[in-house]
Design a protein that fits this description.
There is one protein chain. 41% of the residues lie in helices and 22% in strands. The protein has 3 domains: 130 residues, 2-Layer Sandwich (Beta-Lactamase); 157 residues, Reverse transcriptase/Diguanylate cyclase domain (Alpha-Beta Plaits), CATH 3.30.70.270; 245 residues, TIM Barrel. It is α/β, with parallel strands linked by helices. A hairpin with a 5-residue loop joins strand 14 and strand 15. The relative contact order is 0.06. It is built from 21 helices and 23 strands.
């Protein structure tokens, strides 16, 4: 047998077939073979991931690895006595330009194996004669390869934990439905089901229990499905459902709520009772999107809206949501650039004793100075809270407050400042550690820098937040509960958490002059808080009549434009000396 004598080149795989192992093995040989007489060490050959052999121009076998011996069944002396055409039967000439190609390997026992060949040629030194060329071949057992491919396909199409179809399978199915309905009458709906705060189950009870809960919930959803429905696991704590039409939004929303009820029933795992709620995003096919990825993108947008509304909601996608999502993404980019450019400022607003007018302390308020004007947190803080930006901003405000608590000469000022802190900072950041470091660096007492939190923050990771607040209070910092009475009020919060004061929301203050019932509610709140030994501050005081009314109701401190507008805090010495503890 004479080998083809074209210049050396490595055979590349055809794009539709995966020859990664063949090419990898060939590359390994190329890196290690000697320049003059091809001779590979047994170590190198045996380390290759596939069967490999080396033949000379006349077809004599010169080297092979143990994988080839295992595949072919021949001993070393038997292989030395064989020619390449006796072992490998090819439909075409065994030339480099014909590879990769399928061939038949004649096993020592007499049966035939279908194999895939790949390889390269190399000249013996500087010679170019046909008999000076060497052929390096890699051999892959196609039966094994195809078993692996079938296994990989099963893994790609099925979720190993829940036994539901996988994300890949669902996208394939949805794209097929989109193609079939594009030019024909037909309708469908896509539902993305996101388990609310499922990460907390994994963190508190462990991933093993979390997996058992997921399997139980997947089984519940499977029972609710008809034969025409397509259910799949889409993410760590997400399921996705394809419903055939025709369907209107009311039907789909009714089904989604039924599924929510099914999922909300507690799951018993050992000694644990676990309950999950779910937020559901719905996209109907009448929006006529181009691909499965588009439908899932919009379903995710609807889920985001459902979670923003308080979780455990069903939201049907509206194209206007996509525009708002794009605006949020753009705003987040602007916020990151603004933080790096130093465009944020701290303003201070006084909290005043209503009877004397004396400033008791200050609240630190974040402002964004843009070319178009000064922006308050209401216009950007919700976007910041969706990312780690809120933690960065909270830290920056606290550091700025620490600077304000000392004079330019480094002396501690007789001021008290409260800074707003997000739930994410309380959960994901060592806030007590930062405040200890600031107190040590600037030399002020911990009681001079307090924090304000909203009631909604207390609905997050209760245990973590409770521990953080306990550490802060034990260090001497004070904690104020802001916006009290705005929908999440609970006496449990006042009893369980180490709160030293509350702020009555401005919505109550605004109604004092017109609504007698509002006065009764505010008086009840004030009396209750005082009975618990806490102080009360009323927000949003804008008229003298409101100040007088609150004072008569027993509220001793207030905040609002009547008492003092927020002012830049650029120069510590400009702060009023009346701000005493």
């Amino acid at each position: 047998m004479t080998l083809h004598s074209e210049p050396l080149h490595i055979i590349h795989a055809e794009p539709q077939i995966d020859y990664a192992l063949v090419l990898t093995a060939g590359a390994l040989v190329e890196r290690h073979m000697e320049a003059v007489v091809p001779r590979l060490s047994a170590e190198i050959l045996d380390s290759l991931p596939v069967s490999f052999l080396l033949a000379d121009a006349k077809g004599h076998l010169r080297q092979w690895n143990h994988r080839f011996q295992e595949l072919s069944g021949y001993a070393d002396d038997e292989l030395r006595a064989r020619l390449l055409p006796e072992l490998l039967l090819c439909a075409t000439a065994l030339k480099v330009e014909n590879l990769p190609a399928e061939a038949t390997l004649v096993h020592r026992a007499g049966h035939h194996l279908l194999v895939l060949l790949g390889g390269t040629e190399r000249c013996d030194g500087l010679k170019s004669a046909p008999d000076s060329r060497w052929l390096f071949l890699s051999i892959v057992d196609l039966a094994v390869q195809r078993r692996i491919e079938r296994k990989l396909q099963r893994l790609a199409y099925s979720d190993s934990l829940t036994r539901l179809p996988s994300r890949y399978r669902f996208l394939e199915r949805l794209n097929d439905v989109i193609r079939r309905t594009r030019n024909a009458s037909g309708a469908f709906a896509v539902l993305l089901i996101d388990l609310d705060r499922f990460a907390l189950i994994n963190e508190s009870l462990g991933h093993a229990i979390g997996d058992r809960v997921l399997r139980a919930l997947a089984q519940r959803l499977r029972i609710e499905m008809s034969e025409q429905d397509d259910l799949a696991r889409f993410g760590e704590d997400e399921f996705v459902l394809l419903l055939p039409g025709p369907l209107d939004s009311s039907q789909v929303i009714a089904l989604a709520k039924r599924l929510q009820d099914v999922l909300a029933k507690s799951v018993t795992v050992g000694q644990h009772q676990v309950r999950c709620t779910a937020s559901v995003g719905v996209v109907l096919s009448d929006v006529r999107l181009e691909s499965a990825a588009d439908y899932l993108r919009d379903a995710d947008t609807a889920v985001f809206r459902a979670k923003a509304q308080g979780r455990a909601r069903v939201v049907c996608f509206d194209p206007r949501m996509r525009q708002r999502s794009q605006q949020r993404l753009e705003l987040e980019g602007c916020l990151r650039r603004a933080f790096e450019a130093g465009e944020f400022e701290v303003y201070l607003q006084p909290i005043v004793a209503l009877a004397s007018g004396t400033v008791s302390c200050f609240e630190a308020l974040l402002r964004w100075q843009r070319p178009g004007g000064l922006f308050t947190p209401e216009s950007f803080i919700a976007v910041a809270e969706e990312s780690e930006l809120i933690v960065m901003l909270d830290q920056w405000v606290l550091r700025r407050c620490a600077e304000l608590l000392v004079t330019p000469e480094g002396q501690a000022q007789a001021l008290r400042i409260y800074a707003n802190v997000s739930a994410r900072t309380l959960q994901d950041f060592d806030l007590p550690g930062l405040l200890r470091a600031l107190c040590a660096q600037y030399g002020f007492a911990a009681e001079r820098l307090g924090i304000e939190i909203t009631e909604s923050a207390l609905l997050e990771d209760l245990e973590t937040i409770h521990q953080t607040l306990d550490r802060l209070v034990s260090d001497g910092h004070r904690v104020v509960l802001d916006d009290f009475g705005t929908g999440y009020s609970s006496l449990t919060h006042l009893r369980r958490f180490p709160i030293s004061a509350i702020k009555i929301d401005r919505s109550f203050t605004a109604q004092l002059e017109q609504d007698g019932r509002e006065r009764i509610i505010v008086r009840s709140l004030i009396d209750l808080v005082h009975a618990l030994g806490l102080t009360v501050t009323a927000e949003g005081i804008e008229t003298e009549a409101q100040r007088v009314a609150l004072l008569a109701l027993g509220c001793h401190h207030g905040q609002g434009y009547l008492l003092g507008r927020p002012q830049p805090a650029a120069v510590p010495s400009t702060l009023t000396s009346e701000a005493r503890a």
